[in-house]
Write a structure and sequence with these properties.
- By secondary structure, this protein is an all-alpha fold.
- The chain is elongated.
Amino acid sequence: MGFALGIAILVLVLGILIDFLATYWGAKQSGASKWGQIGCLVGFGLGFFGLLPALPFGGPLVGMLIGPFLGAVVGEFLYRKDLEFDQRAKTSIKAGIGIVVGTVVGNIIQGVLALTTVIVFLVTTWPPISG
């Protein structure tokens, strides 16, 4: 049981690190500023807790994708005051897409790690079949 618990704790810490790095990577690749990243976090909270207008489908799961995108776009748009409107809009949308792609990639990796943890736990703790 100690081995399985150690692996679970390791995967938890690794998952948190991967989530942070994937979001950072997505933001960096798209040229997002801190404002875009903060907007992403605010949008995630609003989307997850349902403060965005109610959607006819998906609920919080769709809100967790739409919220960070809209938050990053708004945050980046407010930050890029020195650019003209068209350039601000393009830069903001690019930042929003980059942050969301990074977040989704991080979540997929976390899902694989979680599945791996469950498999390791079951293999190491499941009692052998006596026949």
